[in-house]
């Protein structure tokens, strides 16, 4: 029983750390893509540092994919055990009145959608075409396909929603900032809306 408790504690911590890593990575990547607001040359400068023939870039991409898979599998594991009503998985959730809440289901629904749309995006970004550097013109060619544009729009929405819900979950899970939670949660909501607006603007400029 003690081993099971330690294992679940480890997996819970792994979910937190992998989620924070992915939030950090996506924040940097999102800001990089947002350079399109300063012109094509600014974004081309950013993408020039993401040369797929560079071994360090390849290793970095593989590391991100590995962390993403770990986070995704762990998330599906939590969902599976939660809906089977196994208490050791969501004990803390019951205590914080987050279980069965609207945001609880939104968190996991967006997680499922992310597993699908991130896979599509990574496949196209990493393997589509013979180019080693993705330029603005190549991105525009890809987004000219309305199906891919739709995928990116949905990915933007679910990624921000999942990230905001995840950070909110971590704050509650580890009992952080108890006196300031209301302000922080409203701040996260407004931040999410602002990022979504910026993301839509990026897509518009990249068409």
Number of helices: 8
CATH architecture: Up-down Bundle
Number of strands: 0
Residue-averaged pLDDT: 87
Euclidean distance between termini CA atoms: 56 Å
Largest sheet: none
* Overall body shape: globular
SSE order: HHHHHHHH
Beta-strand content bin: under 5%
Low-confidence runs of at least 5 consecutive residues:
89-96
CATH class: Mainly Alpha
Which structural class do you get from the secondary structure elements? mainly alpha
CATH fold call: 3 helical TM bundles of succinate and fumarate reductases
CATH superfamily name?
Fumarate reductase/succinate dehydrogenase, transmembrane subunit
Binned, the helix content reads: over 70%
Domain module tally: 1
Q: What is the C-alpha radius of gyration, as a whole number of Å?
A: 19 Å
What are its keywords?
single chain, mainly alpha, 8 helices, 78% helix
Describe this structure in words.
With 207 residues, the protein is mainly α. It contains eight helices and no strands.
What layout of secondary structure does this protein have?
Elements: H1 2-33, H2 40-48, H3 55-83, H4 91-95, H5 102-127, H6 136-143, H7 146-173, H8 181-205
Write a concise synopsis of the structure shown.
This protein is mostly helical.
